[in-house]
Specification:
Length: 247
């Protein structure tokens, strides 16, 4: 099932249509307002269970997962499986936190995966000490069946992937969970967009045979100066790259 049969001329219109549909159909869940967020939705746990059963998770040791509410179930399940979880801080202001399942008591895992109480259990990791990532779970506002994705509109997911690539990490699969109403027919794509190869809804798992190309790094030439000022991690990355190139 898809929410809309038409094509959206802009990502902004696609996002707004999704946010409105989730509220109108009464399937949006806390936190509110839905607009401006990676939306939480009815059936998020079921979508997580479907995704976690996919073979793409076989053998993974470290997974980067976004901090948003609908992917909380994935963060929790991974920690219970003994898998390290790497979580970007909101707006990337604090870089990344590593959640080591060997250091979190089982009864504290729900606390560790809840954004409001997670800080105590996550260890801030400097860029040069980030562990290799085997898989990325990203949040989405809208997706298409051919692997296009758009988030809230700030580009954090794209930047996080770009940071890993800039650090020399190999390309890895990117997967997501959404409500069926978030699966659209089409919307515009940019070259820096993060594509997805597996999409799980509460009802089905959508495999994308040939996802669009993923970013190979960060396009520093088009990155606004204010973004560098707001995200110390990007300034640190740029400085690190300069050091590596001149050493």
């Amino acid at each position: 099932m898809t929410a809309f049969s038409g094509r959206f001329p802009s990502k902004a219109e696609a996002r707004q249509a999704v946010w409105d549909a989730l509220v109108k159909k009464r399937v949006a869940r806390f936190p509110f307002p839905t607009k401006g967020r990676i939306p939480n939705f009815e059936g998020a746990r079921k979508a997580a269970e479907r995704l976690l059963a996919h073979p793409v998770f076989a053998g993974v040791e470290c997974v980067k997962v976004n901090p948003d509410t609908p992917q909380r179930y994935i963060r929790e399940a991974l920690l219970r499986r003994g898998i390290t979880v790497l979580v970007p801080t909101p707006r990337l202001k604090g870089g990344f936190r590593k959640f080591d399942p060997s250091k979190i008591p089982p009864d504290k895992i729900p606390e560790a995966v809840r954004l409001s109480t997670s800080e105590h259990w996550g260890e801030e990791v400097p860029l040069d000490a980030l562990p290799p990532v085997d898989l990325i779970v990203t949040g989405s506002v809208a997706v298409t069946r051919d692997g296009h994705r758009c988030g809230k509109g700030h580009g954090y997911g794209d930047l996080e992937y770009g940071i890993l690539r800039e650090l020399g990490q190999a390309p890895v699969p990117v997967v997501t969970t959404v409500h069926a109403l978030q699966v659209l027919e089409d919307f515009p794509a940019d070259r820096h967009d993060l594509p997805v190869s597996v999409i799980a809804t509460p009802e089905e798992v959508i495999e994308v045979p040939s996802p669009p190309p993923a970013p190979e790094g960060i396009d520093w030439d088009v990155l606004p100066q204010e973004v560098l000022e707001q995200m110390p991690i990007l300034r640190s990355l740029k400085d690190l790259k300069v050091c590596l190139e001149t050493s």
